Amino acid sequence: MTKYKFILSGGGTGGHIYPAIAIANELKLQFPDAEFLFVGAKDKMEMQKVPQAGYEIKGLWIAGLQRKLTLQNLMFPLKLAKSLLESRRIIKQFKPNVVIGTGGFASGPLLKAAGSAGIPTVIQEQNSFPGITNKLLSKKANAICVAYDNLERFFPKEKIVLTGNPVRQDLIDIDSKHEEAIAFYGLDPNKKILLVLGGSLGARRINQLIEKELQNFLSQDVQIIWQCGKLYFEEYKKYNQQNVKVVDFIERMDFVYAAANVIISRAGASSVSELCIVGKPVIFIPSPNVAEDHQTKNAQAIVDAKGAILLKESELDNEFSIVFEALLKDEGKQKQLSANIKKLAKPKATQDIVAEIVKLIQL
């Protein structure tokens, strides 16, 4: 039997890293003898998270363009050229059968180098509105696995496969973990639990909102698991107490989802896909500071299916407390949102993506 080799690249945020790891894990199940190599951006979180998951990773000297004129932007052409050279060297040495990109700075030069070397490439596009890198890479890619309909506006139609986004398999059955999760956080099973997710780095505006509303939550007998992100932990850890658990990063996502009654979240693509699987009532507060406002578009796709509530950052001061209180008191609305968001789940996304990769190595 042929010993297959796979290179995966995804990084910058958990939303790019965890899909790549999920795909690698599924490939490993199907091809236990396969060799894997990850390629990321130096100094980004993938350099820690990927080895923790048991895979080797090499770092490229690459970073994204800033929105204003900076020294980093002036360095970009040099970094890109060096990263393309390094990517070619990695591909020549490792000789992969397929290269898979899940987004992030490093996936651009890596997939470009792989395409130029005639190696099959797969793009896993998580968002409803793709970034410029994946639009450019799509011309040479063999397959583009997407999570939303109507992406033929951006990609060659014949290459698109609607798979959904990979999610952690431990989220598939969280209901059975409810009691264990509440005990893990030392919370009261008789009180409602609000889970606040601002992403791995944190969301300033959401943190400010939770700080402002904290006494309001506690007065309504609501307990909080508050992921404030590593950039903001020092600022907000002072609020940690019996009914408020402030954390920078969550290792056991299955536990926080299992414990939660209501969730406040950003609308990054991976988070949205996970929340569809989890099936809890969600208030999305999209980040307005992302390319093409894609988080709002991600959230709107769920809202259009009557599966979530969407509040823009500009609406928080006037509307949040009214919307939250109404949802907390309306069990019927909670059940309706849960049922509708769950209908959008694609629990077999990882297997379907791997099926597309397998087709390429069997050509």
TrEMBL record:
Domain Glycosyl transferase family 28 C-terminal stretches: 194-349
Protein species of origin: Flavobacterium lipolyticum
Any GO molecular function: glycosyltransferase activity
Stored HAMAP family: MurG (MF_00033)
Occurrences of domain Glycosyltransferase family 28 N-terminal (ranges): 6-144
Binding site residues for UDP-N-acetyl-alpha-D-glucosamine: 13-15, 127, 168, 200, 250, 295
Keywords of this entry: Cell cycle, Cell division, Cell membrane, Cell shape, Cell wall biogenesis/degradation, Glycosyltransferase, Membrane, Peptidoglycan synthesis, Transferase
Xref: Gene3D superfamilies: Glycogen Phosphorylase B
Cross-referenced NCBIfam families: murG
Enzyme class: transferase
Family: Belongs to the glycosyltransferase 28 family. MurG subfamily.
Described function: Cell wall formation. Catalyzes the transfer of a GlcNAc subunit on undecaprenyl-pyrophosphoryl-MurNAc-pentapeptide (lipid intermediate I) to form undecaprenyl-pyrophosphoryl-MurNAc-(pentapeptide)GlcNAc (lipid intermediate II).
Protein name in the entry: UDP-N-acetylglucosamine--N-acetylmuramyl-(pentapeptide) pyrophosphoryl-undecaprenol N-acetylglucosamine transferase
InterPro entries xref list: GlcNAc_MurG, Glyco_trans_28_C, GlycoTrans_28_N
Pathway: Cell wall biogenesis; peptidoglycan biosynthesis
The EC number(s) this enzyme carries: 2.4.1.227
Pfam families xref list: Glyco_tran_28_C (PF04101), Glyco_transf_28 (PF03033)
